[in-house]
Amino acid sequence: MTKLPDYKNEQLSFDDRARDLVSRMTLEEKIAQMQHEAPAIERLGVPDYNWWSEALHGVARAGVSTMFPQAIGMAATFDPELIHKAADIISTEGRAKYHEFQRKGDHDIFKGLTFWSPTINIDRDPRWGRGQETYGEDPYLTARLGVAYIKGIQGDDPKYLKAAACAKHFAGYSGPEGERHKFNAVVSKKDLWETYLPAFEAAVQEANVAGVMGAYNRLNGEPCCGSKTLLTDILRREWGFTGYVTSDCWAIKDFNEAHKVTDNIEQSSALAVKSGCDLNCGCAFASLIKGYRSGLITEEDINRAVYHLMLIRMRLGMFDEPKHVRFTSIPYEENDCNEHRSFALEVSKKSLVLLHNRNKLLPLNRQKIHSIAVIGPNADSRDALIGNYAGTASEYVTVVDGIREAAPKARIYYAEGCHLYKNSMSGLSQKNDRLAEAVSAAERADVAIVCLGLNANLEGEEGDASNEFASGDKINLQLPGNQETLLEEVQRTGTPTVAVLLAGSALAVTWADEHTDAVVEAWYPGAQGGRAIASLLFGNFSPSGRLPVTFYRSDRDLPDFHDYSMENRTYRFFHGTPLYPFGYGLSYADFDYSQLRLSSSTITAGSEIQVHTTVKNTGSCEADEIVQAYLQDSEASVRVPIYQLAGFRRIRLRPGETAEVSFTISPRQMALIDEDGNCVLEPGAFRVFVGGSQPDKRSAELTGKSVSSASFTVTGSPLKLQR
Fold first, then answer.
1. What is the DSSP letter of 116?
2. By the 8 A CB rule, do 686 and 711 touch?
3. 15, 63, 205, 598 — which has fewest CB within 10 A?
């Protein structure tokens, strides 16, 4: 019997097998494997593989799959368990599709198992077009949801990855999109370790993420995909990362063409690999053969990179008998099945945030509503459901579709009202050519639902979004075009008016807050979004979503977009009064908090503390509540957040029911980051706040409730902790 080569021997470790496989490749074969479109090595039985696949909120760009709400909407659920299950469904569908494609000989782009998701950058500025891809502005929330998503994608099999997640974009990436190929993000050590890196650290050390993608920009002078500081010193050495690193697509050529840190593509490719980048999305690494011949890079550098890549493919089971890899048995029928679509609807419902509800207009009473005007450029828009990095849904339910379904006996008056961003719907028409129709519809209705906002053609990635404004970024926070005029004219009819916002970012809807009867933030709610929105409007469930970002009153409240300092940014450092705060969202129920207590009023440095509270549903309907805990360091020696999220939990209570909710605050959460980037736990006074929102005055004004607080003291000497 012919002895199997070690790389095919399933009894050996993946580590040994990957090293053996790399040792059998020629230099040219190895270099070819370092590009996202890796060719087959027929003599070794290595099939071709395209590393580039996407799964931000469903298997993307590979045909039909279940479409969940955009990532920012999933963040609004404040529910790691929900996000974990969504990711598990996505990887189930990814496996089902991958194996069916393999059976058909289809090895094309977007059809692999290496998903370049999630995006765990901090959404520091609402003008950034890719904020929709993130889990919001808070490092703790982003870390908790990112870890949940990664674990759901990768599965819990002791041997094989269900799929390989990839945390991106490492690091300090949040616009401007139009300058990302040449932009240098200048970030202090304090801001870097306090805000920009924690979610990536959690992805590596808690979730054992398989991949990390570098960012396009430079960080403090180093191109991120060729940064020794990021990829070697922090990622590999300090955090112990063992997976693979990929460049963002065509980012390597930026080193010489835009960043001007190298002279040519050979130097750029060599810098990337020597710094720790293993895979090139693009074709720049084809130049490595010239770089090797001219002494810019060694074969040892190349071996290290290819080993990381082969190890991931081994862990995905690509070199093992399919019958030994349990995920190969997932049938294609599980893709886009009824169960998965139903769960996507549940996620969509939990993502919706009720921002304003004057005189409790919502929920609407079906028995009293006989006619409904559904108005606006996003009322019947599929694009407004989707967001970017999306797959294809087998069914799309727009807002007007959902309302028709939810209120079959009511007369529905539909009107576009205006273009999403242009002055008229027709190039031959006068300005506001659909306004009269919308006003007429509102005049005849018992209630007007005005669907406004954006879509991924207006905000998104440079080169992906097709708007003419700012390469995918927003130039301001206003509703574009004539949308606010439309809303004002509809409201002027006297018909009760609900503004439904479909967008991936915060908008300055101050007029809507002051004048309309209700405002709902729906994000890009996924293919089932219209059903979810209609269900909220008619009270089939109580809204429970919370804002994962701050809604500002104006972009005048924001620092310069190019400034990466966190000063006056996000709820943690903002000195002004927001329109709608981070963590805010209304319910159809009422919740009372009582008996806030700590495990101790004094602890020694290095100890944790337990926080307990009692929550009661004093309302008339069963509902979910997002219990939030915030921590304030009252005596820090350096600038620290005003307070920051330290725990959150979704609970469900029937009317009159109570629940005990507990949080544990760790020493690491009590620690601060000093100006040198060190993590230090200083003794002193701390304060804990627990409630249904953050403890700011604006949240209290909007909810009519104050948040409870309790204090404790940390004694002893300062402790330096692991960052």
1. -
2. yes
3. 15
CA distance 686 to 714: 8
Q: Is 459 a catalytic residue?
A: yes
Q: Residue 253 is which amino acid? A: K
Supply the pLDDT for residue 470. Answer: 80
What are the C-alpha distances in Å from 518 to residues 348, 350, 364, 708? 19, 18, 11, 27
CA within 13 Å, CB half, 491: 17
Going by C-alpha positions, the residue among 468, 376, 476, 387 that lies closest to residue 420 is 376
pTM score of the predicted model: 0.98
The fold of the 346-573 domain, in CATH, is Rossmann fold (3.40.50)
Distance in angstroms (rounded) separating the CA atoms of residues 711 and 706: 16
Burial class (CB in 10 A: 0-12, 13-18, 19+), 87: buried
Q: Where in the chain is the domain with CATH 3.40.50.1700?
A: 346-573
Cα(9)–Cα(14) distance, integer angstroms: 9
**Amino acid of residue 438:** A
Is 238 an active-site residue? no
Residue 707 and residue 718: Cα distance in Å, rounded?
30
What kind and span of H or E run contains 97? helix 80-103
State the span(s) of the chain assigned CATH 2.60.40.10.
Answer: 591-721
Q: Could you count the other beta carbons within 10 Å of the beta carbon of residue 208?
A: 17
596 in Cβ contact with 663 (< 8 Å):
no
With bands split at pLDDT 50, 70 and 90, how would you rate the model's confidence at 2? Answer: confident
User: What span, in angstroms and rounded, lies between the C-alpha atoms of 417 and 219?
Assistant: 44
- Report the amino acid identity of residue 554: S
Element at 403 (helix H, strand E)? helix 399-406
Closest residue by Cα to residue 357 from 703, 714, 25, 647: 703
Instruction: Count how many Cα atoms sit within 13 Å of the Cα of residue 275 in the half-sphere of its side chain.
Output: 23
Q: Which of 261, 265, 263, 270 is nearest to 220 (CA)?
A: 261
Residues 36 and 245: their CA atoms lie apart, in Å, by 12
Cα 306 to Cα 32: distance, rounded to the nearest angstrom: 10
Q: Alpha carbon of 401 to those of 351, 378, 442: distances in Å?
A: 19, 12, 18
CA angle 617, 502, 538 (to 5 degrees): 45
> Which residue type is seen at 432?
N
What pLDDT is attached to residue 326? 96
> Are the C-beta atoms of 574 and 550 separated by less than 8 Å?
yes
CATH of domain 591-721: 2.60.40.10
- DSSP state at residue 238: I
Q: Which of 207-221, 422-436, 467-481, 622-636 has the lowest mean pLDDT?
A: 467-481
Which residue is catalytic, options 248, 278, 461, 625? 248
Amino acid at 106: D
Rounded Cα distance, 269 and 252, in Å: 6
CA distances from 195 to 98, 572, 641, 644, 673 (A): 36, 10, 10, 11, 10
In whole angstroms, give the CA distance from residue 483 to residue 471: 21
d(CA 645, CA 675): 21
- Which element (helix H / strand E) includes 176? none
Q: C-alpha angle 693/713/698, rounded to 5°?
A: 20
Helix (H, G, I), strand (E, B) or coil at 687: strand
CA distance linking residue 99 with residue 663, whole number of Å: 42
Per-residue pLDDT averaged across 205-219, rounded? 98
Q: Of the listed 54, 93, 123, 459, which one is catalytic?
A: 459
Assess whether pLDDT exceeds 80 at residue 498: yes
Residue 132 near residue 72 (C-beta atoms within 8 A): yes
Strand order in the sheet with 602-604: 602-604, 708-715, 684-691, 623-633, 644-653
Read off the tokens for 309: 């890549």
